[in-house]
Amino acid sequence: MATGNPITVGRIAVGRMLLGAVSLTVLASADAAWAQDAASTASTPNAPSASANEIIVTANKREQSINDVGLSITAQSGEALMERGISSPTDLGKIVPGLTVQPSPFNTPVYTLRGIGFYETTLSASPTVAVYTDEVALPFSATTRGAAFDIQRVEVLKGPQGTLFGQNTTGGAINYVVNKPTEVFDAGLDLSYGRFNEIDTTAFISGPITDGVKARLAVRGVHSDDWQYSYTRDDSLGRKRQLQGRFQLAIEPTSNFRLLLNANGWIDKGDTQAAQLVEDTCAESTAGTCGSPQAAAFRDYPRAPDKARAADWGYGIFGRRPKRDDRFWQLSARADLDLNENLTLTSVTAYSDYKTDSVQDFDGATMFSVDTNTTGFIKDFAQELRLSGKYGALNVIVGGNYNRSRTFDRLFYNFSEGPSANPLYMIPGAPHGELTFNYSRQNVKSYAAFGNVEFELSPQLTLIGGARYTNTKRSFEGCTNDFGGGTATWWNAIFGTNVQPGGCLTFTPTFPVIFDPADFDQLNEDNISWNAGVNYKTDSDMLLYARVSRGYKSGSFPTASVASYSGYTPVKQESVTAYEAGVKAPFGNGLAEISAAAFYYDYKDKQLRGRKPDPVFGTLDGLVQIPKSRVYGFETQIDVRPTDGLRISAGMTYIDTKITEFTGYDALGELHDFAGQKFPYAPAITAIGDAQYDWAVGSANAYIGVSTAEQKSAIRRRKTRPRCYMPGGVA
């Protein structure tokens, strides 16, 4: 959300003294975004030399200029992220053409890159776009919300990944490179104040402890008042209560051994967002449950005004406020041992723990119709071991990866005042539905072996090839259950079952037999992903590249409220075979850089949350698969530095998505041929633009700039954000 009239306290840089004193900045624009200019604090003693305008990335698990990597990459420094107001992974779409990050009602962001995405909020669902911090995986999307702070840079790799990075994905990978412990003492503070009394504070302290040992501690806190208000009564919602932290310890006891220990985590106790009641499916019908008194109450309920902040909500989860109580922590250790001057052994070990207890209200009214409580946990262990070496013209990486996850996901429903709770309303005294919960317990084990080779045939021509074998085993337990006995009584009256209070309500294939105690299933899969490419570097330093790759995303089971076993049918693994060709060209000795790429994706068994027949409710949400589909498009990026201090950049991605083979159900339970339809959350055009001018003010820096981001498809969305910073001044 844009902040208005922020007062910002600039960084106090102890040691480097970026600012001689605390700076106060007042921004008059309601959409202004501010960030302090910050030098990189990462320590990379073996980094290749680079010009002031060159971007160094680690897409191939070694440091290279972005213009030497034959892959479509968007990279931004931590300084640029701050200047553009990028404070969470959901903001990345503002700076990465082709990327959309869709917040979901259940706190699980959904990443879609070049049209490849999976809108599924089950905690254990594998993402199409993997997120890492310093190559340590955040294996499930729900755990990524606190990744983007105290960042040196972010790298977004487009296209199937897996032969280099720890997870196998069909869409791409996002790698946050965090600021590392520094060689000298350093400390800093950023503080901003904005609309709804939002206070956003980030602080760090870094430096040596003793010979060969350095440390860095960074924390961030966000606190704000409510931003939503009820249009039917005196009530408000929307406060923020967030805390993030990261501690790193870098140990280098000898010249050939390096160890980096990382403990990080976050807490979110802010409110969830209430819905707006705009229309009602029973507004013009009294058929079925639309004839119930509950449906009549919704027809008579006032509709939300056309104001973004106006909404309504109830307290149907035992009087609890719609809010989150989520937390995440992770411990990781990376060890690098130089076996000789050419060969390095790397071990990356990580354990993470996530827990959620979140209350939501999705009906936009005070009645208890879709009042929910999401609880669950994720416990994940990962180990990667790899050898990387350079022997003359040959760069090689071989390794293995093991991952084990335990997940539990429960969704509690209070639908006691909704139309679907009372199908027997015409019978006086008939029982009706009240409270239910559905859950899934999924355990996942995966093993992988991978390798990647780059061979320089000449100083201009490089061949690239890699492969990965992955074996995944997933177990499932799940059901939709009664809570408190009321829904069980209603269920037994309708279907003649004998569901006990708290028992499972889901029918087996032998209707009307009920699962007891739950549905149990397994999904075992394996695959081989691969890539092959060629890079050609001209005498003018232009890179021409072509790449073919195939990636997989593992299958999964849903967490869903269903009456039939078919609602828990898993989706199997999907695959994308990607063809891409591109160019990266610097001009004018670094004054301008242009990159462009064209791509075609052959998409098999795309996973999608759609509609499935249900013997009780007609149709319900469920996981479906699209046998055949495709994506093609192109993208371009230009960066220009015409004069000292002035930087102009623009980028655009165009995609055309199409389902070529799929027959499925609509919301009314009717079967349709969906061939020719577009993908959801895949806008045809995403474009970004940015301009900034920097100049010196005494011993400090000032800047003024503007950013714009646009998406165009069936829905057009545009966001323009001016920004500026002047030490001690007003903009």
Automatic annotation (TrEMBL):
Chief site of localization: membrane
GO cellular component, one term: cell outer membrane
Stretch forming the signal peptide: 1-35
Protein's GO biological process: iron ion transport
Pfam families linked: Plug (PF07715), TonB_dep_Rec_b-barrel (PF00593)
Limits of the TonB-dependent receptor plug domain: 67-173
Topology relative to the membrane: Multi-pass membrane protein
Gene3D superfamilies assigned: TonB-dependent receptor, beta-barrel domain
Keyword set includes Membrane: yes
Domain TonB-dependent receptor-like beta-barrel: 311-705
Keyword line: Cell outer membrane, Ion transport, Iron, Iron transport, Membrane, Receptor, Signal, TonB box, Transmembrane, Transmembrane beta strand, Transport
Subcellular location: Cell outer membrane
InterPro entries per record: Beta-barrel_TonB, Beta-barrel_TonB_sf, Plug_dom, TonB-dep_rcpt-like
Family listed: Belongs to the TonB-dependent receptor family.
Protein name in the entry: TonB-dependent receptor
Organism: Novosphingobium resinovorum
